[in-house]
Amino acid sequence: MSRLKIEPILRSLHAKFGPMVTLRIGTRPAIFVADRTLAHEALIHGGAVFADRPPAGATKKIITSNQHNISSSSYGPKWRLLRRNLTAEILHPSRVKSYTHARNWVLQILQNRFESQAKAGRRICVMEHFQYAMFCLLVLMCFGEKLDENQIKKIMEVMTVNFGRFNILNFWPGVTKIVMRNRWRELFRLRKCQEDVLIPLIRARKKAKEERVNKSKEDKKDYEDEYVLSYVDTILALELPEEKRKLNEDEMVSLCRVS
């Protein structure tokens, strides 16, 4: 249900029942708070109580490797580790500054694509070129590599899949696995496509990291000048606090896809 359709309904419900209304949307209850004082009380004063997330649905468990990413992980040591790693290692101002050369590189890519289309007398689809340029930057930050156009487009294809259309499978999964088995197959197929595209990049980065560690000090200095810390570098070193183990490749795919 779109926001434009639900807002009039919520206004009428708040007028009838008060500033806090609970509706069951699908399989989960949703709480709508129309009073800023109550919202502040819940989200600030009672933040720890309401910070957790509900257990993932059947399809969400597949997409997120059983909630092993920042946007779906339960509130606790694992979530704090994943969030801290992202904010400190990749999104920290000093780290963002270190990607200046990468942003300049991507800006040049964008400019070249605009100029090429203009010289050919073709209509310029601005959003398409911006999306491609942004993926060039994100792939470099995530995997530490400058990939060619075909590789970037493969990643764009698997990373922009709309998994929301599979939410219906969460209604009585035992039943939908029988009556909607083709849609379940499609979900597994798309997830496998993501793994086929992203896992080789993760493995390549792991191999490059091992080679970097094994280099002599003299060679390593030259290598450091071109080295770019990537998100995969940081998650390769993580150990899940509650499970006392490293992330597996499937979980790394979920982190790279969502984070």
3D structure, described in words:
The chain has 259 residues and is mostly helical. It has 2 domains: 1-51, no CATH class; 57-258, Cytochrome p450 (Orthogonal Bundle). It is built from 14 helices and 4 strands. A two-stranded antiparallel ribbon has the order 1-2. Strands 3-4 form a two-stranded antiparallel sheet. Strand 1 and strand 2 (28-33) form a beta hairpin. Helix 9 packs across helix 11 and helix 10 (173-179) packs across helix 11 (181-214). It is globular. 16% of the residues are buried. Keywords: Membrane, Metal-binding, Transmembrane, Transmembrane helix. Its cofactor is heme. Pfam families: p450.
Explain briefly what this protein structure is.
It is found in: Membrane. The protein has helices at residues 3-17, 36-45, 47-50, 58-63, 77-89, 93-98, 100-119, 126-143, 149-159, 173-179, 181-214, 217-226, 231-236, 249-258; strands spanning 20-25, 28-33, 239-240, 245-246.
Descriptive terms for the model:
Cytochrome p450; single chain; two-stranded antiparallel sheet; oxidoreductase activity, acting on paired donors, with incorporation or reduction of molecular oxygen, NAD(P)H as one donor, and incorporation of one atom of oxygen; mainly alpha; Cyt_P450_sf; 2 domains; 14 helices; 66% helix; 259 residues; transmembrane; membrane; metal-binding
